[in-house]
UniProtKB/TrEMBL annotation:
SMART domains: ParB. Residues 240-260, 271-280 have a biased composition (Basic and acidic residues). Belongs to the ParB family. GO terms for biological process: chromosome segregation; positive regulation of sporulation resulting in formation of a cellular spore. Keywords: Chromosome partition, DNA-binding. Residues 4-95 form the ParB-like N-terminal domain. PANTHER family: CHROMOSOME-PARTITIONING PROTEIN PARB-RELATED. This is ParB/RepB/Spo0J family partition protein. It comes from Cohnella xylanilytica. GO terms for molecular function: DNA binding.
Length: 355
């Protein structure tokens, strides 16, 4: 390929190119390098009307040479005219350069996917740019965030104060805007790790937590939000255990009822027209019932002070459901007690009549 020197005054920047953010410190380093070693890589341009040229890629090198007062700059002249091919080449070139921000990438992909001039697909872009479809889609997800958050997004995975990485933001992408941006800014301030952000995001996706409570949680720090998640997770597991216990108790009760029905049927079938031989003497059903009930109920032991006082640690939003569970448990016990008190009274009555 031919490299020619072209006067800088004849070259125009492409204002529609995907890269527009240039770090001043990095630009100064490039200028120092050019002064010491010269420009090592030419820029690429295409001819335009009036004998002028427009940059395809190399804007930063162009800016550095222009600032240094260079009269000419080495160029590769392209005859490309297809806007799609030119834009794809600009993206491909910038993907190999440091400083091409995640937001610039996202905006470039979004433009190719949605601009009527291009209307590409993720599959097409994946094949052209050598990036997976998931990579392209994840970059576009960053555009869900507001400008205040976008300004903090940086490349890489290092967690830095008042900066945000793509990995920190992706767990928040499906949250409503009123939660998403506020949480992102909190995590930038508190340098919150990605694993903690994933846990906290679950709080704001939990439909059992009211919108009012979620709004109050936004005032907490990253560390406080993690503690809140830990409490909710512990309570969730405890509720699951209680539900499993109730299900097991219901299963046992159903089995006992089925066994009792089977015992009743052994006394004879009234519809058969036949009388069965008398069954061997056996334990009355009420005795078997009491024995089974007693075996399933553990002996009473006073609650330890630490256990009883832990009721104060139940979060306010969990107290009403807990109270309902206690009421349900008490009601169930009272029903059992009422039935067995009647049995006890009938025994007393029978004993009095026998004297």
């Amino acid at each position: 390929m031919d490299i020619v020197e072209i006067k800088i005054g004849l070259i125009d920047e492409d204002t529609a190119q995907p890269r527009y953010q240039f770090d001043e410190d990095a630009l100064q380093e490039l200028m120092n390098s050019i002064e010491e070693l010269g420009l090592l890589s030419p820029i690429k341009v295409r001819p335009t009307d009036g004998g002028r040229y427009k940059i395809i890629y190399g804007n930063r090198r162009y800016k550095a040479c222009k600032t240094l007062g260079r009269e000419t700059i080495p160029c590769i002249v392209s005859n490309a005219t297809d806007e799609m091919e030119i834009y794809l080449e600009q993206i491909a070139e910038n993907l190999t350069r440091e400083g091409f921000s995640p937001i610039e990438e996202a905006e470039a992909f979004h433009k190719l996917l949605n601009d009527p001039k291009f209307r590409s697909s993720t599959k097409f872009l994946s094949g052209k740019l050598g990036k997976t479809e998931a990579y392209i889609k994840n970059k576009c997800e960053l555009l869900k965030f507001g400008n205040a958050v976008r300004k903090l997004i940086v490349a890489g995975s290092e967690i830095r104060k008042d900066k945000l990485t793509e990995d920190q933001l992706l767990p928040l992408k499906d949250l409503p805007l009123e939660y998403r941006d506020t949480l992102a800014l909190t995590f930038a301030r508190d340098e919150t790790p990605v694993t903690d952000i994933k846990r906290i995001a679950k709080l704001f996706k939990d439909e059992s937590i009211s919108d009012g409570l979620k709004s109050k949680l936004l005032y907490k720090s990253g560390y406080e939000l993690l503690e809140t998640w830990s409490t909710f997770e512990h309570n969730r597991k405890e509720r699951a255990k209680q539900e499993a216990l109730r299900a097991e108790q219901a299963r046992r009760a159903a089995e006992e009822a089925a066994r009792d029905d089977g015992d009743d049927e052994e006394n004879g079938d009234p519809d058969s027209g036949k009388t069965k031989e008398p069954a061997a003497p056996k334990e009355p059903a009420i005795q078997g019932k009491l024995r089974k009930l007693a075996s399933s109920l553990p002996p009473h032991a006073p609650l330890a002070d630490a256990v009883a006082s832990s009721v104060e640690a139940i979060p306010p939003e969990e107290r009403e459901p807990f109270a309902r569970s206690v009421d349900e448990w008490i009601g169930n016990l009272e029903k059992h007690l009422e039935e067995w008190r009647r049995i006890r009274e009938s025994l007393s009555t029978s004993a009095s009549a026998g004297h």
